[in-house]
Amino acid sequence: MATTEVQRVVFDSGAAASMVEELRGSYRSGKTTSYEWRVSQLQKLEKITEFHEQEIVEALRSDLSKPEFESFVQEIGMLKSACKLAIKQLKSWMKPEKVATSMTTFPSSAEIVSEPLGVVLIISAWNYPFLLSLDPVVGAIAAGNAVVLKPSELAPATSSLLSKLLGEYMDSSSVRVVEGGVAETSALLEQKWDKICYTGNSRVGRIVMASAVKHLTPVLLELGGKSPVVVDSGINLQVACRRIIVGKWGCNNGQACVSPDYILTTKEFASKLVDALKSELDKFYGKNPLQSKDLSRVVNFNHYARLTKMLDEVSDKVIHGGERDVNNLRIAPTILLDVPQDSLIMNEEIFGPLLPIVTVEKIEDSFDLINSGTKPLAAYLFTNNQKLKDHFVKNISAGGLVINDTTIHLAVPTLPFGGVGESGMGAYHGKFSFEAFSHKKAVVYRGYALDASVRYPPYTNGKLNLLKALVGGSLLGIIRALFRSSKA
Ligand code: NAD
User: Fold this and answer.
1) Which of 367, 411, 436, 462 could form a disulfide with 485 if both were Cys (CB 3.0 to 4.6 A apart)?
2) What is residue 4's predicted lDDT score, i.e. its pLDDT?
3) What's the pTM value of the predicted model, to 2 decimals?
């Protein structure tokens, strides 16, 4: 929270307004737009990952019991790579891009100039509380903006660490952290921003978008959804199962936006798949996964209750796992088979360690099932069949697709990361982060030579014919029109 029990500091709309005003003053001074400022701030972010790794690991352990391995690979390491890439590429990203002009503007030259948007707000979620807070900040700073970050109150240790570290390292005239929950976020959302980047669920996404409407503020919404995994037969089943397991339980125990939400496979293949999943799960997490140090816990009791409610409704469908420990907020990796389509678990994003398997007659039927729901953030296909791959890529609309693996598209910095439809709008990562927080300004340069009178009144048929020929692009037509107008 923005407040502590000892020292209560109220962060209301007035406080938010004066903070934004200060940041706007700093932005207007032009300091954040210089290459030097951007690089120096990105280097500071990188230093945070270098010098404070253990504190970050401890905060993530306190918030989620996140294993150190996952904290490093999926949060700290990813942020470090994002900083390094931005520092390395910043000059080329900032460089105006020369583009061709048309005959109708001859002679002229043109370029696209990327300019910062101004003062931006980043609202982050609890599940990857370090990465999802700072990764968009990298893009916002690289693009030359002043930034306010609002981490999630559901990951309080990481939130307070971010506030402390950014306070120590970053230029406070242009980069701020506001801690808090709904009240503080609402106070922030009342202000005018030049962009809002929100990561979280689609219900709050709608609140964010509605408040952005007042000021015509653009939004980047990183939401979630039910990400399906289609599993065909004739594959390397052991490798496929390992990749499904690591994408599900090895990513914050299913509490990841791109985690496999449910599996689709044929009735015929289901039992083989189930056996292989069980066998690999045992190898990874042992016979008593509630004790495993390699699995995060459920974030809090509300989410634990949400998940157990889902599970209890279809408890007769559990074929593996199902054990739970309310005192330690743990639920074992759980597989369910043939859950009804109208059950809670098939109608809400699961966001936890439960994995239902839905069976279909033919593998192609799974595509209709996916397309009958809202567009997911990710969709995965395991197959060796080229036709099926082509069909999947052409016909499944999702934020991103991976063939024969899960979740790894996030680690490819040349790919945009974002949703479509219900799973979000806009994208970031790599150069897309820079672009997400920039305006692409169109600039045309002209001189005074060759001032063609054809565009000026009085309008004549000859001028019109010449312009029609120019627009038509036929050289012969242009010569004819020029010839006719010289005779007229
Ligand atoms: P959360 O509870 O941490 O909420 C996200 C943010 O919204 C927080 O900062 C919170 O303070 C703020 N918030 C909550 N209620 C609010 C309100 N009424 N008004 C204004 N602000 C409010 O996170 P969550 O929503 O539980 O996150 C899980 C969801 O996020 C899942 O749907 C998941 O798929 C999605 N997600 C998406 C991505 C992505 O990159 N696309 C990443 C992580 C999570």
Assistant:
1) 462
2) 42
3) 0.95
Q: Measured from the CA of 128, which atom of ligand 1 is nearest?
A: 43
320 found inside a domain = yes
Question: Could you read off the pLDDT of 151-176 as tens digits, one per residue?
Answer: 999 999 999 999 999 999 999 999 99
Active site residues: 222, 257
Q: By alpha-carbon position, which residue is closest to atom 13 of ligand 1?
A: 182
Q: Does one domain contain both 185 and 314?
A: no
Q: Domain residues for 473? A: 458-487
* Count of positions (residues) in the chain: 488
Do residues 155 and 302 share a domain? no
CA of 206 to the centre of ligand 1 (A): 11
Query: Which ligand 1 atom sits closest to the C-alpha of 154?
Result: 3
Ligand 1 centroid to residue 223 C-alpha, Å: 8
**Same structural domain for residues 87 and 26?**
yes
User: What pLDDT is recorded for position 1?
Assistant: 46
Asked if residues 366 and 263 have their Cβ atoms less than 8 Å apart, the reply is no
Say if residue 22 is exposed, middle or buried (CB neighbours under 10 Å; 0-12, 13-18, 19+).
Answer: middle
**Residue ID of nearest Cα to ligand 1 atom 28:** 200
